Amino acid sequence: MQRNEILTTGAVEELIANGHILVIFEDYVLKLDAWIDKHPGGRLAILHMVGRDATDEIKASHKEKQWKTMKAFRIGQKPPGIWINRTPPIRGGVFLKDDDENPLTPVDSIDSSEESSLGDSIGDMSEVSLPTSLSSVGSDMGDEVQKVESEPTWKDMPGAKTRQSSKVFVGNPSAYTAWAEQQDIARDTVSYPPVDPATQHSIALKYKALAERVQAEGYYTCRYTEYAKEAARYTLLFTLSMIALSQSWYLTSAFFLGLFWHQVMFTAHDAGHRAITGNFEVDSLIGIFIGDFLCGLSIGWWKRSHNVHHLVTNHPEHDPDIQNVPLFATTPSFFRGIRSTYYDFNFPWDKAAEILVPFQKYTYYPIMGIARFNLYLLSWLHVLSDKSSDIGGSTAWWIRWAEIAGMSCYWYIFGYLLLWKTLPTWGTRVAFVLVSHVVTMPLHVQITLSHWGMSTSDLGEDESFAQRQLRTTMDVDCPVWLDWIHGGLQFQAVHHLFPRVPRHNLRKLQGLVMEFCEDTGIPYTLLGFEDGNRHVLGRLDQVGEQVKHLVNCQKYMAENGVKDLH
């Protein structure tokens, strides 16, 4: 096969059907079978791009010199014109060999049987004529419908449309879930540019021009003086904690230690994106020192999760950052139960979810206050599993052992020397742990703030990288003097478009992104911290209310002996 040969779409699909890892980059087809286990960003980041034009995703996450190395993986050119994206096998995409009557599902695909219920539900919904607004059928359904008023939390969002009051089927949980999902899709459809290939290709070209401008104007240049200022702040906070500890002011010490953890993780974030030195080994060591040694959190776990999050942001089945059932549900898609391609685990919709999710707007802050404990667990599960070798690839085997050493040292110093040997009583130890960990809550709130209130709809494979990032991510508005509290990561929408740009440059870059949004017609969501919190709570409340209606559907079925459509 010649590298300049034009491959037909059928040929590409057949190669994928045979289990090969094919990705479109610029005008070429890349065969990444030999690279997938060496990829520093992990296997999943590549598997989510199979059959797709991943040009924007690759360029956003890699330096130009890394683009050039991809020439070695070319096996041919794509057909002329716009490439129509295929659904990757890991997302349930099925590819057909030319000589086969039945399609083959390639390697690493997931069992999509769990997803079939939605299709069945929608099919059955046609029999009951379920429109976008169901108010017209109320008079005909009698006791089988109840009114749900529109939620005001969406009407003030940029580009969003106010929804009319609607009605839901109490006797049909599957139909109700599908209807709720369609409501979200309908809102996005009228709020964002169409997702036809021509429109999205035009947006991609404008994003390419913007990316070239970002590079030319030096936004990728790391300002090390800013890190020097931050290092001084980190040192001050840690010193204050140790001084308070020496004076037996234990809770004061815990408070400053929590602030230290809160602040220093912003730099670990930059290291994870290789936004400090740009060198994989050096930034990995920085990330391990801060994340594992100073904070007890696996930077490898974070990178594996975060890389996927950046590619399939807010997708219920694929983005681990929103897969928190039964504690939280940010979309009605979870009502069907989903299979996570990240965790390779089924998240069922069960009785625990039905009980907890309706109260999620009340449990949000308390759970964010203790979220760090869950991160400890996830970190150790990662480094002790085979998944730890996914980050860094086979050439960076040392990362796993460096992380184990770093986290072991953290627990020896914090757990043994500080908590056990220094603090006098169990009451003091418990109070110290709680205060130091609850102080980090604003960081967890900020992380969820930028996504949990935004769209979770899947508008199809042809949606451009730029539009999906802006549709699923919002920025938080604040004065410049408060940037140090947010760590620069209040500009999440800007960051998702250009993840390698150091966060100290994101505020300046925000203006260019606003111009891009105005030019393309993509809404740019910018809310103050208070309004952003109110917006997320509104979304949690909205989904919680939907759960109550779902439960009513199930009660109706149980009382009347009706079977579900699943």
Automatic annotation (TrEMBL):
<keyword id="KW-0812">Transmembrane</keyword>
<protein>
    <recommendedName>
        <fullName>Delta 8-(E)-sphingolipid desaturase</fullName>
        <ecNumber>1.14.19.18</ecNumber>
    </recommendedName>
</protein>
<dbReference type="GO" id="GO:0016717">
    <property type="term" value="F:oxidoreductase activity, acting on paired donors, with oxidation of a pair of donors resulting in the reduction of molecular oxygen to two molecules of water"/>
</dbReference>
<dbReference type="InterPro" id="IPR036400">
    <property type="entry name" value="Cyt_B5-like_heme/steroid_sf"/>
</dbReference>
<dbReference type="InterPro" id="IPR001199">
    <property type="entry name" value="Cyt_B5-like_heme/steroid-bd"/>
</dbReference>
<keyword id="KW-1133">Transmembrane helix</keyword>
<feature type="transmembrane region" description="Helical">
    <location>
        <begin position="364"/>
        <end position="385"/>
    </location>
</feature>
<dbReference type="Pfam" id="PF00487">
    <property type="entry name" value="FA_desaturase"/>
</dbReference>
<feature type="transmembrane region" description="Helical">
    <location>
        <begin position="236"/>
        <end position="261"/>
    </location>
</feature>
<keyword id="KW-0560">Oxidoreductase</keyword>
<keyword id="KW-0746">Sphingolipid metabolism</keyword>
<dbReference type="InterPro" id="IPR005804">
    <property type="entry name" value="FA_desaturase_dom"/>
</dbReference>
<keyword id="KW-0408">Iron</keyword>
<dbReference type="GO" id="GO:0016020">
    <property type="term" value="C:membrane"/>
</dbReference>
<feature type="transmembrane region" description="Helical">
    <location>
        <begin position="282"/>
        <end position="302"/>
    </location>
</feature>
<feature type="region of interest" description="Disordered">
    <location>
        <begin position="96"/>
        <end position="142"/>
    </location>
</feature>
<dbReference type="GO" id="GO:0046872">
    <property type="term" value="F:metal ion binding"/>
</dbReference>
<feature type="transmembrane region" description="Helical">
    <location>
        <begin position="397"/>
        <end position="420"/>
    </location>
</feature>
<dbReference type="GO" id="GO:0006665">
    <property type="term" value="P:sphingolipid metabolic process"/>
</dbReference>
<comment type="similarity">
    <text>Belongs to the fatty acid desaturase type 1 family.</text>
</comment>
<feature type="compositionally biased region" description="Polar residues">
    <location>
        <begin position="129"/>
        <end position="138"/>
    </location>
</feature>
<dbReference type="InterPro" id="IPR012171">
    <property type="entry name" value="Fatty_acid_desaturase"/>
</dbReference>
<keyword id="KW-0349">Heme</keyword>
<comment type="pathway">
    <text>Sphingolipid metabolism.</text>
</comment>
<keyword id="KW-0443">Lipid metabolism</keyword>
<keyword id="KW-0479">Metal-binding</keyword>
<keyword id="KW-0472">Membrane</keyword>
<comment type="pathway">
    <text>Lipid metabolism; sphingolipid metabolism.</text>
</comment>
<feature type="domain" description="Cytochrome b5 heme-binding">
    <location>
        <begin position="4"/>
        <end position="79"/>
    </location>
</feature>
<dbReference type="Pfam" id="PF00173">
    <property type="entry name" value="Cyt-b5"/>
</dbReference>
